[in-house]
Amino acid sequence: MATPLEIRHDQSLRDLNTFGIDAKAASYLRVGSVDDLRALRADPVLSALPRLVLGGGSNLLLTRDVDGLVLHMASRGIAVIGEDDAQVIVAAQAGENWHGLVQWTLAHGFAGLENLSLIPGSVGASPIQNIGAYGSELAEHFHSLLAFDFATGDVIALDKRDCAFGYRDSVFKHALRDRTVILEVRFALPKRWQANLRYAELASEVAARGLVRPTAQDISDAVTAIRRRKLPDPAVTGNAGSFFKNPVVSAAKRNELLARHPALVSYAQADGSYKLAAGWLIDQCGWKGKSLGAAGVHEKQALVLVNRGGARGVEILQLAQKIRADVLANYGVAIEPEPVIL
Ligand SMILES: Cc1cc2nc3c(=O)[nH]c(=O)nc-3n(C[C@H](O)[C@H](O)[C@H](O)COP(=O)(O)OP(=O)(O)OC[C@H]3O[C@@H](n4cnc5c(N)ncnc54)[C@H](O)[C@@H]3O)c2cc1C
């Protein structure tokens, strides 16, 4: 007979989200394997509850208690599952820590994920917003994934095309939203590797370290050092990393802004549009280091909103709304939040 699911009630989520927001889940289940999801789907009461899949809670702003069921991904395991002349395929379970996976690949001599070192959160969440940093993004070395489909009860395999990755975007934010739980993510890591130093700040850090032919581990160490210098550690100061996505505007809009603000920070995109640095826009509106109650804007990085201690989710949201309104009024650009807001 199958073991009954261990549902907990009124579970505090304070230590399970990096903002450190003190919200509760009406029901909570640690998901160790797909069997738990099958049992859940077969239960008429539990399967009717609204669900929130939770990894490391590092891209989430909880503005209220969760009425339904939190599915906390706790599956573990990393293994090489295939290889050819060009690449190694590594599979990791959803509940694995992302940075732990990066370190595992480097320790086993597999390069490719090093630019994404120290991004908080779980492996299972990494495809949701196609995590990216320092000139790379998940899609670059993504092979495929397995997901449980609540609609059918099947485990489905999705390749890169199925996932429709974009800038902080994927099919899981659209057609498959609230329908699938990612179980396993597979990466294709190249045997012939070249350092990716496209991101200027990373290239300078590597140069400053006197590294002429950096290894993947050297790149990981450099990324880790930059991130530690720039970003608040969620274990010390609650935050969810960048709170806003960098807005993408037309060339005409960018040129109009550049004429008025010669210091505007923008990056040309392949399709002729421009990505604007949201952090620069927020900083120019005077928000860096400011606070509204216990919600604040980080002193070093205007893109990061922080919990200065005991902030409620709604306070952080109100601060975000004020910042958004200011950027819109001053620059005519709408900036959108990156974390999932609940
Ligand atoms: C200090 C800091 C720095 C950061 N830097 C970066 C960065 O450089 N680049 C970047 O891209 N992000 C960054 N982030 C954001 C965050 O780390 C990533 O978005 C990460 O992938 C979130 O993982 P998580 O497990 O914490 O997801 P959670 O916050 O738990 O969940 C996020 C979303 O994914 C869904 N989800 C989670 N797991 C699954 C699953 N197995 N199946 C289906 N849905 C799932 C959740 O329902 C939710 O909608 C940063 C965050 C912090 C706190």
Describe this entry's structure for a reader.
The protein is α+β, with helices and mostly antiparallel strands and 342 residues long. Helix content is 24%, strand content 27%. It has a five-stranded antiparallel sheet. A hairpin with a 2-residue loop joins strand 17 (291-292) and strand 18. It is globular, with a radius of gyration of 21 Å. The mean pLDDT is 97. Flavin-adenine dinucleotide (FAD) is lined by residues 18, 52-60, 73, 94, 119-122, 124-126, 128-129, 131-133, 181-182, 231, 234, 239-241, 340.
How many helices does DSSP assign? 8
The N- and C-terminal alpha carbons lie at a distance of 37 Å
Proportion of residues in β-strands = 25-35%
Class derived from helix and strand content: alpha+beta
Which terms would index this structure?
342 residues, 20 strands, 24% helix, alpha+beta, binds flavin-adenine dinucleotide, five-stranded antiparallel sheet, 8 helices, globular
